[in-house]
Amino acid sequence: MKITDHIKNANGKTLFSFEIVPPQKGVGIADLYKNIDPLMEFNPPFIDVTTSREEYIFLERGNGLMERKITRMRPGTLGICSAIQNKYNVDTVPHVLCGGFTKEETEYLLVDCMYLGINNIVALRGDAMKGEKYFEQSKGGHKYASDLVKQIHDLGTGKYLHEEIVSDDNSSFCIGVAGYPEKHIEAPSMNYDLQMLKKKVEAGADYIVTQMFFDNQKFFDFVKQAREIGIDVPIIPGIKPIATKGHLQMLPQVFKIDLPENLISEVLKCKTNSDVREVGIEWAINQCKELLDFGIPVLHFYSMGKSDNILKIGREVF
């Protein structure tokens, strides 16, 4: 079922969903199941599965020579989607990137999704390759997420890259895209970023999932500004509970977000990361309750492979 249909069928009730990261190559899926199992008590209608882009590794070839190779550390997104869908009878949402994929590779991936009964896609531009300062368009790939959205949307109407196919099969996807309550790192202004978001919606996006944030007012302002420029699709807030003291530096650096002074102060008082985890849980609970009052369609959690803190939050909120 499509995400928009799940939201419609909920009749105003806020749904629970979460995102997982595929394990690294050589690691089984069992640990992933251990972290998914506890969260199924909240009846998530869908689970997102991230996709990693390629990165460079260097292989020693002897005589001091090194050979640069491209690899993917966390492949298997579609395989994991299929396994989860069959094990839990829940919809899965693979992330599809511009970076690292040609348009043809994207088309093949979408066809595989159709065969697997996957109806939902999150379309993302993706980050720059590790070691590169700026995002570089892959040869034969898309430069912008809006172009990727258009390809996915076109395929759903039978417009493939090199031919048009008339079929009775319903191959249209429900397309999610990313939104940034504190603007994308590369956007010169918030207004510019919102216009780029609108472009993705006009290209065929059906819903928006936001990057993590810790100040709800920034989300409320973001929704208001989006509605004012004509973006009318569901906007789903993304929540990540802070878990370590290192997050005070890492999250602002990697995601270019601000942390509220009250949260920073509470984290700095903590003696251990276990204490930080409890602070993060309490902060997220308060965040979620306020977001529920705001009337959001879904609470979407970034689990990053761990579920114990999200389980505690969910039991207080749902």
From TrEMBL:
Q: Name one Pfam family in it.
A: MTHFR
GO cellular component terms, semicolon-separated: cytosol
Q: Describe the reaction catalysed, as an equation.
A: (6S)-5-methyl-5,6,7,8-tetrahydrofolate + NAD(+) = (6R)-5,10-methylene-5,6,7,8-tetrahydrofolate + NADH + H(+)
Q: Which domain of life is it from?
A: Bacteria
Gene Ontology terms describing biological process:
methionine biosynthetic process; tetrahydrofolate interconversion
**What does the record give as cofactor?**
FAD
One GO term in the molecular function aspect is: FAD binding
- Give the family from UniProt: Belongs to the methylenetetrahydrofolate reductase family.
Query: What is the name of the protein in this document?
Result: Methylenetetrahydrofolate reductase
Q: What organism does the UniProt record list as the source?
A: Epilithonimonas lactis
